[in-house]
């Protein structure tokens, strides 16, 4: 039986589960709480249920479950899907580790390396962006005048809507062998011939940091802005040194913003497709191009799904780690 | 003519919490009726039950003789004025007032005519085009009244609408509300925790406490003839002294208290041996009443001169504080003076001690 | 921080470097769009030209991609704003037990890499349309819209939810009490209240969809959007037409941001005028009450 039928039964289960929850909470002799349809009226109640149901189930949950399901299946021609050969298997994950569907003799270092390089570099870029953005965010939130704040926000918002590809492209123009940076370096006599930034992956890392800079600064700014200025004044009156104020007053208060910015930057870095494509050198290790190739070069969708799932797991682990370290709830970092 | 509003055995519970317990009440057409009680006493719940936002857990609400069970707030002949007024900020004053007519499908020209009349009635003729945010507190108040009157309700419900105004304006609006009620002649049901408001405006008052209607009567009755200790101490200032009934005779009873034998009226028919509370208003107490047979000794703690009256706080033998109010400032005692306080037995009131004490 | 002149200079330097880092690459690119050499170049300036813009508009793939992107953006707005609105309303009404689970589900797309959303959308709808024989749904534009809708609806929901939480329920009750039906309350009271948030959500939805590449590249199949065409061009090599496109985008964004700023200032002014009017009315009122 095709797994999709099983998966399509899920909405029913969910609907029943929600109905049960509603029943459990609605029991007792409570007088007030009107029912869902009583409160919204039929037309609107129906709209709400259909819109949210379609979104949550058909756009979010079912595709994700189906992708995970597919990742545990072998690659088969369409005609054999649902047939006797369509059984659960770990072969796609085995391929990621050993580079072969059957043998476990050699590790698949290329993919494993790319995976961990991606994760590790993303963490570093996240930290780097935090370090770059924090002082400016603090300045904007706490000490800039209203007029200057408007100008700064405007300067930040304009580049925000420039697409990833174009940002990466701008970096390529800047760092190419005939680009302005190399011209400057040679003009100053620091190097005699153009330095190949792209082959050294410098371009990639700078480009990634650059591309997601603004996703760090806005959450930080919003979080620090809500801190009462008097708290800082009070701490300074008590003689606290500046680093103490930041470490024990500002940062704890801005925790949700910090967590939010870090999560976004990390997620976008690991999932970046355009930047590695534009700024990657020939030997660049990044995981997303490998995933892309499973789909549209090799047409091995189950394997691609497995690789995508690995990436998703990495992101989930990162989010959970951030939540654990900061002691926040999910709702606090997605505002 | 059917009663405007009848409550019959109305109970409202939220989970374990009983917000209204066994309310029975009849409100007559054209009456200005107030519910008075501290916050959390269930008066707002009762109001919302009448207007249809809450269905009673048990019992029935009848409006104009008709059972309202199953009628939502938009199907009832009531209009509610909210504590925060709940004017619609995105509409102009005229649109606010005409909203109830608009959703009833009243044609535009008819609606405009009616809105114009209402604007005249509440003296806002010039302000119809303005947004609500451009109005003063009193003007907003009048828009809310006009908006509610526009739908010609048979009962107008008001949930402490004056509480956001400052004192001077509040007193002015009391008179205006009362005048409007006299003019339009419909039933007003008014909710307040302010006894001054309730006493000055209402034909009748229901005093509520902890979900229970303790007493219903006109202002004089709830002030002068309270039937429960709660009403006695909530409506107006009152001193209370605890004791045990010693003897009863034609409507009076004597009470054994730590301050001596005291005497007061016995309207609820207490029998000898019953635990009871004696209530005496501060203005009924006479100071330096050395000849009085009913009274007790006390020491003055504080004397607060307030122009027309002076409030004297005394400490009696048990450590309890007693307040006396005397007219003018002449003859006020000095601090730390030991004196005798007396009162007429007709000014003392004996009520049964509630079970929880 | 209050600080000595040295620290102040250091801080000014930091801000300067930050903005050079942020804006420099864009400026460089914009300059190269007007320079004549075939390869995007800033220095030396060999001659001023607007020819690259002409070439851009003559690029038929690019223009087709642009039209598809507009269409997708429009469809995403049409789907995501209503879904986000419904999502936000349900969030305020759902039983507390179910709320955190519901929140986790609907916010998860925001924290999921775009390529995974694209992949899952494609694999699921390919299978679903196959078994239900509705193959015409398996179309690049439709899949891209669905993929975008998953996370953009969540953005919309978060924006609308923020405003909805400030909604005064008594407004709704007042309208009901005056005889309005539930749909009327929704139309007359709730929607006008949410209008600013709905507008912001629509703008954000369109922009997010328009500039998206990660999800689009998987879900678009054989169709083209501006970003996928652009990616192809960039992969082939650098030409100043790409700089020209970036320059246009920056210019449009700048104009939009300035216009938004102006509108906001005017609205602030109107709000201030209203408050002043109310204060005057208040004074007049207190003065008119006869003294007791």
Query: Mean pLDDT across all residues of chain C, rounded?
Result: 89
Looking at how many chains there are and whether they match, the oligomeric state comes to heterotrimer
Question: Terminal Cα separation of chain C, in Å?
Answer: 55 Å
In CATH, the architecture of the largest domain in chain B is 3-Layer(aba) Sandwich
As for the number of domains of chain B, it is: 2
Looking at the structure, what is the overall shape of chain B?
Answer: elongated
Helical coverage of chain B, percent range: 10-25%
Contiguous low-pLDDT stretches of chain C (5 residues minimum) are none
Distance between the termini of chain B: 44 Å
CATH superfamily of the largest domain in chain B: P-loop containing nucleotide triphosphate hydrolases
CATH class of the domain at 59-237 in chain C: Mainly Alpha
Work out the radius of gyration of chain B: 25 Å
The proportion of residues in beta strands of chain C is under 5%
Q: How many DSSP-defined strands of chain C?
A: 0
Give a concise summary.
Chain A has 335 residues and is an all-alpha fold. Helices cover 73% and strands 0% of the residues of chain A.
Architecture blueprint of SSEs:
The complex is a heterotrimer of chains A (335), B (357) and C (292).
Chain A: H1 3-26, H2 36-40, H3 42-71, H4 91-98, H5 109-143, H6 146-160, H7 164-175, H8 180-187, H9 202-211, H10 213-225, H11 229-237, H12 242-253, H13 255-270, H14 274-279, H15 287-296, H16 301-326, H17 330-333
Chain B: E1 5-14, E2 17-27, E3 32-36, H1 43-51, E4 58-63, E5 66-67, E6 78-81, H2 93-103, H3 108-121, H4 137-150, E7 155-159, H5 167-184, E8 187-192, H6 195-201, E9 204-209, E10 212-217, H7 219-224, H8 229-234, E11 239-249, E12 252-257, E13 260-265, E14 275-280, E15 286-287, E16 295-305, E17 309-316, E18 321-327, E19 338-342, E20 348-352
Parallel strand pairs in B: 3-8, 3-9, 6-7, 7-8
Antiparallel strand pairs in B: 1-2, 1-4, 4-5, 9-10, 11-12, 11-14, 12-13, 14-20, 15-19, 16-17, 16-19, 17-18
Chain C: H1 5-32, H2 51-58, H3 60-93, H4 96-107, H5 114-131, H6 140-164, H7 169-177, H8 182-211, H9 214-219, H10 226-236, H11 240-288
